[in-house]
Amino acid sequence: MPTLNKLRSGSADTTTPSALRRLRVVLTVFFALDGFIFAGWVVRIPAIKEQTGASSSALGLALLGVSVGAVVTMVFTGRLCRRFGSHPVTVVCAVLLSLSVALPPLTHSAMALAAVLLVFGAAYGGINVAFNSAAVDLVAALRRPIMPSFHAAFSLGGMVGAGLGGLIAGSLSPTTHLLGLTLIGLLVTAVAGPALLRLAPPAAPTGQPDKATGPRRLDSRTRRLVLIFGFIALCTAFGEGALADWGALHLEQDLNAHPGLAAAGYSAFALAMTLGRLSGTTLLERLGQTPIIVAGGATAAAGMLLGALAPTVWLALAGFLVTGLGLANLFPVAVERAGALAGPSGVATASTLGYGGMLLGPPAIGFMADWFTLPVALTSVAVLAGVAGVIGYATRR
User: Minimal CA–CA distance to 56: which of 382, 374, 361?
Assistant: First the structure.
């Protein structure tokens, strides 16, 4: 199978340790780029909301465009990866993501914003399925739980993107800022894309299902467990999406924070996520998966209650930090457990549910904010984090 992949793609062999290391570095760059562009967009949501004159519920519906575009694309991206390879699909989606992030500032109504966010969401969903598929191949080849390191790169990119956005929020318009993200994204893809295309996906180790023959058939109990771990991923990714899209608005609108300081809220959350995921492989090897899920869920629940209900900006920022530490490794662990049960099909199911939670969370928060208040709506993140911890303990065997 490696020979066939090599002949079809014209890519270099990835069976040597040095080639696997190069592949890990290049994939890490794309994870970081995805986080950087996504964070650059989310910190400008308050400005886009003001520009379009949208209410919280109208903004929530517009943000649903990201969800719809991503979910529709996720359904087809797996097929595209099987036909063309996960590496070419990653590169193409990176180009589309870089181009589409410049579109939201050009809109002046919630309906127009929703339309362009469909395009942005399609690119975002496609690249996440593609590079996670590529990462799964590499994790299997290395036989080490390194998935948290890739998600750490996403969080690091988000931290940098949010931090940069906070610094320039008061001096650059959203149009100039997001056009700059387009140029950076295209430049990074121009450098990293050819390197990724030169490397073929590594072959599955002995004993794992070959992609050519498809995933093995699963019994009903295993399918239910895969869905359960996918639900854990959904619960935790819901919080990541909610803080990305509504964290800055909460600090600015409810706690009267300066726009630059409000943007630092997601940066603080992303920093905590990055630190937690950088230590994820070591923690998993020493403590095991169940303690990570249980402790992480409880920590995130407590942190989000503080972040949502704190009376001051600095306490809310502390809550965002604690939430990030708690959520950091829950998504990678849930995906890994699903993969251990069902191979690549389990990873795909859990990842899709997880990213669905990340993308569907923001519009849900928007509706709850209109029904109640934004701080009360954000406590739903704490509830779902606690549920994830309970489920993790209940399925420990």
Answer: 374
DSSP state letters, 352-375: HHHHHHHHHHHHHHHHHHHHS-HH
Question: Using alpha carbons only, what angle is made at residue 278 by residues 129 and 250, rounded to the nearest 5 degrees?
Answer: 75
Dihedral over Cα of 212, 213, 217, 222: its sign: negative
Of all helices (H) and strands (E), which one includes residue 154?
Answer: helix 147-168
For 192, the 3-state DSSP assignment is helix
Q: How deeply is 101 buried, as exposed, middle or buried, from its count of CB atoms within 10 A (0-12, 13-18, 19+)? A: buried
Query: Counting Cβ atoms within 10 Å, is residue 114 exposed (0-12), middle (13-18) or buried (19+)?
Result: buried
Give 208's DSSP letter.
Answer: S
Evaluate whether 209 touches 216 at the Cβ level (below 8 Å).
Answer: yes
Range in 177-181, 182-186, 204-208 with the lowest mean pLDDT: 204-208
148 in Cβ contact with 72 (< 8 Å): no
Written as six digits, the tokens of 289 are 């998966």
Q: Which residue has the higher pLDDT, 212 or 224?
A: 224
Residue 267 has pLDDT above 80, yes or no: no
355-373: buried (b, 16+ CB within 10 Å) or exposed (e) per residue?
bbbbbbbbbbbbebbbeee
Checking if the pLDDT of 158 tops 90, the result is no
**Cα 243 to Cα 189: distance, rounded to the nearest angstrom:** 27
Q: How confident is the model at residue 98 (pLDDT cuts 50, 70, 90)?
A: very high
C-alpha–C-alpha distance, residues 116 and 259, integer Å = 24
At residue 12, what are phi and psi to the nearest 5 degrees?
-75, 155
